[in-house]
């Protein structure tokens, strides 16, 4: 029997935007575009694997879920899982590989009424990235997310968006144009179910499969906007900063995490070809230069709250992401450099006000 997880989640998104539009008329522009956004991501002409991804989500079994912890490092869905369900669920989730952002766990709840031999171990989705490590670095510096509307730009599978909801955000909208990531989010949504509803009965965590530039400009709908791991992929970083600013309410908070290099306010690396084997990396500023960019874009109270070199323990190959990872992109004789000879990945998190 097929589930209606995607249809229900998309209906919740529509109703959330409709309610928001009654308070903030700029949300009506989102509503007019929503049907196109949601149909395009399922169009086989655009994404050859879309029908297969949809089928994988639709075939996920319904489990007896006791509770969901959205505020733990491993996003945990405590559910009763028998051997048959474990096998079916694992196979379907692996059809949505590679899993890059997480981790997630499904299962682990003991069913006292079930034969011990039928009870299955939990399914642990050990993703390429320890996204929980990034959240641990960022979270202590955030303003209170409780009751706030949050936009997570380039949110991947949705791990950080779920964590934002877990800290009490009223509404979280994740955007990312990836067809795979959209369906990974829907797979987790299937098991989370209504665990993230607030007092209105609406889901709090939503996903729109579009890039930032597809959103209506100057919506000014969000109290907090996150852009983590996106800026260095943009051909025009200043345009990206302006687009982020346009989604914030006056006085809203921007959380920006991106690759940086050592240097002064005039230091910016522009990789000639690839950076750590990525061919879509354009600008890596120093922290000082990035602060200047944000101030020039009109942000205030700019502060750098964290700088961390990415380790091969934080980003690595796993059973759920079997392709090359960071260890393959570093100089085998000098881990402080990429395979191209650039400084190894180092990420800074900056917080600023509109």
Radius of gyration: 20 Å
Largest β sheet strand count, sense and barrel closure? 7 strands, mixed
The helix content is 25-40%
Structural class: alpha/beta
* Secondary-structure element order, N to C: HHHEEHEEEEHEHEHEEHEEEHEHEEE
Number of separate strands: 17
Mean model confidence by pLDDT: 96
Low-confidence stretches: none
Distance between the termini: 49 Å
User: Widest sheet: strand order?
Assistant: 9-8-7-10-11-17-14
Strand content: 15-25%
Based on Cα principal axes, name the global outline.
Answer: globular
Task: Specify the number of helices.
Answer: 10
Binding site for carboxy-S-adenosyl-L-methionine: 101, 129, 134, 154, 176-178, 212-213, 228, 232, 347
GO biological process, one term: tRNA wobble uridine modification
Protein name: tRNA U34 carboxymethyltransferase
EC number: 2.5.1.-
Quick structural summary:
With 354 residues, this protein is an alpha/beta fold.
Question: What does this 3D model show about the protein?
Answer:
The protein is an alpha/beta fold and 354 residues long. The protein is built from ten helices and 17 strands. It has helices at residues 5-23, 27-40, 50-58, 83-94, 131-138, 159-166, 179-192, 237-247, 287-296, 326-329; strands spanning 64-69, 75-80, 101-102, 104-106, 123-125, 129-130, 149-153, 171-175, 205-208, 222-228, 248-259, 268-269, 284-285, 300-309, 330-331, 334-338, 346-353. A seven-stranded mixed β-sheet has the order 9-8-7-10-11-17-14, with helices on both faces.
């Amino acid at each position: 029997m097929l589930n209606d997880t995607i249809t229900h989640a998309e209906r919740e998104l529509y109703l959330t935007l409709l309610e928001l539009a009654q308070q903030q008329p700029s949300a009506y522009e989102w509503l007019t575009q929503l049907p196109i956004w949601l149909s395009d991501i399922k169009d086989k002409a655009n994404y050859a694997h879309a029908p297969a991804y949809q089928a994988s989500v639709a075939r996920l079994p319904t489990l007896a879920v006791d509770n969901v912890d959205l505020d733990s490092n491993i996003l945990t869905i405590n559910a009763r899982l028998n051997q048959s369900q474990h096998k079916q669920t694992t196979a379907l989730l692996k059809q949505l590989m590679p899993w890059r952002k997480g981790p997630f766990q499904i299962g682990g709840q003991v069913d006292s009424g079930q034969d011990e031999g039928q009870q299955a171990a939990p399914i642990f989705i050990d993703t390429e990235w320890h996204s929980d490590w990034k959240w641990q670095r960022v979270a202590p510096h955030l303003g209170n997310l409780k009751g706030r509307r949050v936009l997570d730009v380039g949110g991947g599978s949705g791990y950080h968006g779920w964590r934002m909801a877990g800290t009490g955000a009223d509404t979280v909208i994740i955007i990312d144009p990836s067809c795979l990531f959209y369906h990974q989010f829907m797979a987790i949504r299937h098991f989370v179910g209504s665990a993230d509803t607030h007092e209105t009965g609406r889901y709090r965590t939503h996903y729109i499969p579009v890039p930032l530039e597809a959103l209506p400009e100057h919506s000014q709908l969000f109290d907090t906007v996150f852009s983590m791991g996106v800026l260095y992929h943009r051909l025009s970083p200043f345009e990206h900063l302006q687009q982020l600013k346009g989604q914030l309410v006056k006085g809203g908070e921007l959380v920006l995490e991106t690759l940086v290099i050592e240097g002064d306010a005039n230091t910016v690396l522009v990789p000639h070809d690839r950076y750590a084997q990525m061919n879509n990396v354009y600008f890596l500023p120093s922290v000082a230069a990035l602060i200047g960019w944000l101030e020039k874009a009109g942000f205030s109270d700019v502060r750098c709250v964290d700088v961390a070199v990415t380790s091969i323990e934080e980003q690595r190959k796993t059973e759920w992401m079997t392709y090359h990872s960071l260890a393959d992109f570093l100089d085998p004789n000098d881990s402080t450099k990429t395979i191209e000879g650039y400084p190894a990945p180092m990420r800074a998190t900056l917080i600023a006000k509109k």
